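Why does residue order matter? Because the sequence determines the fold. Keep that principle in mind as you read this record.
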Amino acid sequence: MLFTDILFLFYFFPLFISLYLLAQKNNILANLIIVTFSLVFYASFGLSNLPILVIPLILDFVIAIGIHRFQGKTISKALLSIAVIGNLGLLAYFKYYDFILSNVGMENFSSNNIITLNSLKPLLIPLGISFITFQRISYIVDVYRKKIAPTTNFLKYATYATLFPHLISGPIVRFSQIKEQLGKRAINSETIFEGTKYFVLGFTFKLLVANQLFTVEDLIIQNINNIQFLESIILMFFFSFRIYFDFLGYSFIAIGLAKFIGFDFPQNFNSPYQSTSITDFWKRWNITLSSWLRDYLYIPLGGSRKGKIRTYINLLITMLLGGLWHGASWNFVIWGGLHGGFLAIERVLSDFKIKLTIPTYLSKILTFLIITFTWIIFRFSDTQQLDLFLKSLTKINISPPNEALVVPLIYSLPALIVAVFWSFFLNENFVLKIKPKTRNGWAFTVAFLFLITYSLLKKGVPFIYFQF
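Structure:
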């Protein structure tokens, strides 16, 4: 059930918000409604997903209380290890089991235990397990580090751990960010306007920008065996804009849905394509993931506290694992390694005070081109397709694109113009300036009705980050 599906728009969410608004003055009942509908939402992707969501949720709740109770004792560290290893173990098994065995030459490994367990695997692969795992670990580790006290209210924790607006693809919300809202939330005309604003903008970015760009991208991929230089350039830039607006759209929708029920989620983007360096890019792109990798991986590895060489290695390791987090495929490892290498090089230049005198606009263009090229590696998990694409870039010519692309390209021009304008001349903070005035309210209402109608006529395209 996608946010853009008829089932969600006409049945699930209207029923949810109606019951929620009726129960909002009773926090226990309101949280119970959130948990119930979140489980239903998650189950819509497969009932077999639920045990992997619910059982670790219960265990993490109990373990966090144990860590807090035995703080400073050996048992606290042991409980932390059990929780972290357990959560990462689930992630590794469901997401990387086949990848690991295939790369160590054990595809046909015949342990009876493994065969029995593996027979259950197709039934249990949970959607969005990467985001869910990282959120769980942040809670456990923050309790261990004494940054937060664990809640002893299971319903509040379950509400935090299952909130459907961001459950599948983030933003990764830390317990400290919504702790107070789990106990008391205010819903008024302003929060409804804010929710509508983000929802409509997110819907627009997904349906009218990302999905339109995908149409062209998909046609090129379908004819990848005959791809020409110009088509490769189009594919590269279209995917670069598509992944941004697809994920930005999801993040805005998640933020909007959360605001409808009184929660404030953190922003996940800050004009990433206006970055002046790769380091700057990772401060602006998927901010909640970037900060998670920094706080729970890079810093525990030693960060920049153990000398320059170790710092560069830590950056590389962090990004390699960050790339692998996106998927069990070598293209993600290469993508992460490239970004880790770029971050390490920029750190070397900074450490040795080597300044490259490049005008700001040129550094932005260069950074965008690097990011755009690396996205293509991210896009192709099929190495043969990636090889065909890279070879096409070496055969520079001005042959016109395939005739089948002409009409879709023309139709995609408005989406491309919006993508370019927003990416390079606006930013996410612009949304904050849209105030709850009457004309804005009417504008978003009309836009919402148009988007609903549009969604009925078009086949939905899954969000890119659903696969992670």
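The radius of gyration is 23 Å.
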